[in-house]
Design a protein that fits this description.
- Keywords: ATP-binding, Ligase, Nucleotide-binding.
- The chain is an alpha+beta fold.
- Helices cover 25% and strands 35% of the residues.
- It has 2 domains: 195 residues, Bira Bifunctional Protein, Domain 2 (BirA Bifunctional Protein, domain 2, 2-Layer Sandwich), CATH 3.30.930; 43 residues, SH3 type barrels, CATH 2.30.30.100.
- It contains 6 helices and 12 strands.
- The strands form 2 sheets. A 7-stranded mixed sheet has the order 1-2-3-7-6-5-4, with helices on both faces. A 5-stranded antiparallel sheet has the order 11-10-9-8-12, with no helix packed on it.
- Strand 4 and strand 5 form a beta hairpin.
- The longest helix is centred in the middle third of the chain and has 18 residues.
- Bound molecules: biotin.
Length: 248
């Protein structure tokens, strides 16, 4: 329960030492009508990443999925995922890590000044609803916390490698409190995201179903879409896989 976890935010926490995927459990709870529950695990055996990718979840990480029932339209749902990224980055910064955000919602640590990075955390959001309303939304957040980056896929880093081990309970408290603040005031999400963005100002390639877009990332819109300045003018991309390119 929330009280035992010492939370100011209105979440109860369901903790598992080992679980398949906290997102699967959160979806189950959402289907049963639950709200404001955070499912937390020390280790996951079947965790899922974005775009059908695998995600590695060894013991020592922060693997958490939040069941939320917002009264928003599906068009605003991306703001929830951006809010989770901002909350995660801010909790990591509090732990001493130079966490930034790669569009849309990867929490990364910059390497050098050319837009290179290592990935610290990722977010997989799942939701259900009608065309005009969201029934439930589950941002699933994976933070490489107290794990060796060596034990993670290439290109990953961890709080341990960047700043030393963190008190995971405090980290989760901070994350949930930040997330609660942003979700209750969605207007604050995009400005906070911009402040932490690594992608803005970078040359990027975004892969999306309609084809790829290459150019300079110049801003995000009020709903979190990426604005890219291409050779042929501006393009706005609402979803896709974003890669930072070397400056030309
Ligand atoms: C990504 O591909 O970057 C997203 C990774 C999301 C991983 C988290 S860990 C908690 C939750 N449970 C899962 O199975 N996936 C998400």
């Amino acid at each position: 329960p929330a009280v035992e976890f010492g939370l100011e935010a209105p979440f109860s926490v369901e903790y598992h030492e080992t679980i398949g995927s906290t997102n699967d459990r959160a979806r189950e709870l959402a289907a049963e009508g639950a709200a404001d529950v955070a499912v937390l695990a020390d280790e996951q055996t079947g965790s899922r990443g974005r775009l059908e990718r695998e995600w590695s979840s060894p013991s020592g990480g922060v693997w958490v999925s939040i069941v939320s029932r917002p009264t928003i339209t599906p068009a605003r749902a991306p703001l929830y995922t951006l809010a989770a990224a901002v909350a995660t980055a801010r909790a990591a910064r509090e732990a001493g890590v130079d966490a930034r955000i790669k569009w849309p919602n990867d929490v990364v640590v910059p390497v050098g000044d050319d837009g290179d990075y290592r990935k610290l955390a990722g977010i997989l959001t799942e939701m259900e609803g009608e065309t005009d309303r969201v029934d439930w939304i589950v941002p699933g957040i994976g933070v490489n916390a107290n794990v060796d980056a060596d034990a993670l896929p290439e290109g990953a880093t961890s709080v341990r490698d960047e700043a030393g081990d963190v008190d995971r309970r405090r980290f989760v408290q901070r994350l949930l409190e930040e997330f609660d603040g942003y979700r209750s005031d969605l207007e604050t999400v995009v400005p906070a995201w911009r402040d932490l963005a690594l992608t803005l100002g970078q040359r990027v390639r975004v892969d999306r179903p309609a084809g790829e877009v290459v150019g300079e990332a110049v801003d995000i819109t009020d709903s979190g879409a990426l604005v890219i300045e291409t050779d042929d003018g501006q393009e706005t991309v609402s979803a896709g896989d974003c890669e930072h390119l070397r400056p030309v």
